[in-house]
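quick one
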Amino acid sequence: MERTDIKSMTSSEIKQAVLEMGLPSFRAGQIYKWLQVSGVKSFDEMTDLSKELRAVLSERFEIYSCDVEKKQVSSGGTVKYLFRLHDGRCIESVLMKYKYGYSICVSTQVGCKMGCAFCASHLGGFIRSLTASEILSQIHSAQSDTGIRISHVVLMGMGEPLDNFDNVMRFLELVGDDNGLNIGMRNISLSTCGIVPKIYELMQKKLQLTLSISIHAPNDEIRSKIMPINKKYGTEELLRACREYMKTTNRKIYFEYTMLKGINDSADCARILASRLKNILCHVNLIPANEFGESPFKRSDPETTEQFAQILRSHGVGVTVRRSLGGDIDASCGLLRLRSAGDKTRSGRDQ
Ligand code: SAH
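structure w/ S-adenosyl-L-homocysteine:
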């Protein structure tokens, strides 16, 4: 019999299962807390349950977790993890320290289908989507490894969150539950390359999370060259969805713009972008590109980036030039996995 992934179950689903097993309902609360708050990796760690009950549970259910396969700590305190999943696949997460607390950047898929030219995540191909429990486990494992409490989550690691919509929605429900990790929706950001129909689906849920759009170019001509998704959903359609999103949720939208030397960093690009973002309550984050061997792209000069920011500002667009966190530790999405010879994901595909 296939065992059920219990850490992806909501508290009411666990309660129902517990009742169906003929157990008292308070057991559900105990089990749920062990899974969601403590992040235990086995039923044997649930010390307030009898040995017999633990055995029964482990026959029916499986607890998905992830183990630290590799860890890199940067000089600034950023920690990059390569986590190994139950099937041997590897994913990356990055723990970052900010003034307001600790934030973790989690992966939502093993590999990625989107194929953005400057990103390392798709280089090993697309393997599979993560379950809600596997997204949660990245937080649990980072917390237990460091002993700190994580207060913010960004869905900005490997994979496209809106291409794994249902599992990501389930993750959001679990992570925000006050009987679980209790990380409020306002402390969560979701970043997408722009799967337009899914943006509409997301806005219907009226969540208070922050939506980030990886825009990276001011027009279709440049965007289609570096982001294949743009051939399906062009910038006009995407920006229309952003305007709708803003109206429906009343939330500011963040645009991520990776500065690629000679590709998207001209003064003209800045002016076009500024004019197209008019009427959108938004903020632009300029990200220094992470360079890596397989990528032909170079990082824009700091002066070019500053000038780009200045033009946006002069048009009334809020902008931040992001510091590059963990540049010394392969902290560009997908790079650690790519560099890890031990990852079954890579070795399996390259042979
Ligand atoms: N698929 C989602 C989330 C994962 S990528 C998305 O596209 O938004 C997270 C962010 O890192 C995106 O903005 C992505 O474009 C950016 N990114 C990817 N590779 C990068 C690189 N080499 N340098 C800088 N930013 C990069």
